[in-house]
Amino acid sequence: MRQILAINNQNCIVNCVLNEDIDHLFVKCDFYGRILPLISSWLGFSTTSQGNLLDHLTHYGGLRGYSKNVPLALNIICLFVVWIIHKEINKRFFQHNEEYLQALSENVKLPSF
Question: What burial letters (b/e) apply to 94-103, b meaning 16+ CB within 10 Å?
Fold first, then answer.
């Protein structure tokens, strides 16, 4: 069997019983939505949860008061978060294996250096 997702299967993979759309997955999900706040805490600032992913990424990239490279670095870190979540979802679905939230945030921190 090729393990391809059924087109009518739209529930979040961590059983939130909500539809898995981009805003739910990266901002509102009880599991994955906690990664960006963990990373913000690691970076030493707090942020409020934005309503959708685009607003969240705009917020991260628009932080001022730092050097010119900080917004670029924050955007790169956000892209690492997206990549790590994508990889973890595939791992959950295809290999029936899952990571802990702390391990996922560490997977973002390591390549960010």
Answer: eeeeeeeeee
Q: Mind listing the pLDDT tens digit for each residue in 12-47?
A: 888 777 777 888 887 888 888 888 888 888 888 766
Separation CA 25–CA 23 (nearest Å):
6
Joined tokens for residue 69:
């490279």
Q: What burial letters (b/e) apply to 33-63, b meaning 16+ CB within 10 Å? A: bebbebbbeebeeeeeebeebeebbebbeee
List the domain boundaries for the chain: 22-112
Cα separations in angstroms, 94 against 2, 8, 26, 106, 108: 10, 18, 20, 22, 21
Query: In three state form, how does the secondary structure of 74-109 look?
Result: HHHHHHHHHHHHHHHHHHHHHHCCCCCHHHHHHHHH
Binned at pLDDT 50, 70 and 90, residue 1 comes out as very low
pTM: 0.73
Please provide residue 19's backbone torsions phi and psi, each rounded to the nearest 5 degrees: -65, 140
